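Narrative of activities, Objective 1.

The group set out to show that a structural description can be obtained from nothing but a protein's sequence at a throughput compatible with the screening campaign. Below is one input-output pair from the validation batch, recorded exactly as produced.
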Amino acid sequence: MFAWFYNQYTQKIQLRLTVYFLLLLLPLVIVSLYVNFRSQAVLLKQAEERTRGALTSSMDYIDLSLQNVEEFSTLVATDPNMLRLLHQVGPTLTAQSYVNFADMVKQLSSLTSINHLISHAALFHAPSRMLLSTTQGGKRIERPLHLLELQTIAETKGTGIVYMMPDTPFPEQQTFGSVTGTNSISLVRTMDLNNPDRDPNLLIIGLNKEKLLDLIRSLLPSPHAQIYLYSDEGKLVTGTGSRGQELRQAEEASAEEFTVRVDSRYYKWSLILVQPKAELYRETKVTRMYTYVIIAVSVILALLISWAVYSGIASPVQRLMKGMKWVGSGNFNIRLENDRSDELGFLTRSFNKMVEEQQYLIENYYEQQLRLAHTELKFLQSQINPHFLYNTLDSIYWTAKNYDADEISEMVLNLSSFFRLSLGKGRETFTLEETVTHLHYYIRVQQLRFLDSFTVSYELEEEAKKVPLLKLVLQPLVENAILHGLDSREDGELLISGRIRHGRLIVAVQDNGKGISPERLSYIRSELGKRSEQEAGPLSYLEHGAKDLYGLRNVKSRIKIWYGPDAELTVESEGEGTTATILLPLDRCKDEFRPQTQGPVKPHEVRGA
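Output recorded for this entry:
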């Protein structure tokens, strides 16, 4: 692709002009895109700073609220009246025990009304295994593993405070929330903080999830934004979306989302806000759209200007180039249209005058040389006919001695057909298919002469059948194959093939005869090579004292004159059999490439590029 573009770039002025104008626009495009992306980055940074400040303030307020809840829990855990009521109840429940439980629940209820962040409170009385709750009343913890887990919490935490999620695992496939009857994060601590020999009684304070959500919901900048509160263990406390129960899931934002995280300074809780970047970039969307429109209009203008410059300057130059190509191919009747009076108009007028003068010189001098070369071609072609006629008459003579008159009549019939087609009504070329049909009459004469001692076959590709071929170029090759290769064989085979490869017509005559000795083959190639080494000129292919190889020499000379220096004749022989191959440039295998001797070519004009 790069090589093709470079080739077009070096050959097309219009493409170069377009590239130049686009390169002029490149700095504008780069600066516009940079400003656009830079404005988005600045906007994103400012939004992050504002959001982080708001989240930090909200996180500080949550810390303060949690501190108030912990202070309330301390007051309850050290309240003498609550401790007295707890100690009066033993393992066996009495009527007084239920009275004491009722008083404790009443005091816990007053606690929830004081602080709006507390949703409910509960007491676990270890001796009686009773769980007292402001929302569910009292219930006995019957399962030993659950009792053991609650006692373990009390013993391991001591006088400290622990926040437990409702989905914290408990024995027997239960959770902390299902055992204590809560669906929110809970503050858990032991009662009677000043007594080291206390029973493992627990105070459980549940935080109001809706109140916590109200504290952070006001921070949402848009309807599509989401906010989440996570505990110090990375567990979801509350949130507005369905991001996930783990902190890492909330932080896995896509490239289209904007995420800000703030951590608590005291409790190590985390507050995360997630917002689509498209909402942040809404303000810059119009500016970005105008930037793209300006870039598109600039590119279109560059293309239009390059086309205008090309039409005014490069197009006349293109016409001059095409005209020169026509002149280079031999057409001196070309005339360029010219309606300009500037420098390019002067060049066009000068070109037309130069071509007119060149045409005059060619018609008065070079055409004489072409006529002389064509006369030579006619002479070389006529040299074959007497030799061929002699051999044909000799064949008829030997056939008459060996056979009855029927074969002689057949030979005369084929011979007459051959001569009739050779005249060709003045035609110089036939298609390859017609040439082989013509050639078969001659081969049939030779088969009759040699008592059908050899067979002939044809392999012509469909594409090659319609290619014009100079007449009588294959007959000398076939004659050599029969007389010098197959004359002494009883099972001779002659193959004539035609194909097109790599822009050339390849016609081969192959036999399975005795072949050619290496010395003789070297001599033949040397003599044929001399036909290519001679200097060009109208009389360059005349014979100079040749004593043999008349047929091969004449074929080589004729194809060189008719098809140019790229035409070749090769002879190959390896031990047994010989192959003579003619290779002709396909672009010259047309009637219009024959030497011109008369009649001007009809003038035509090269118009717009």
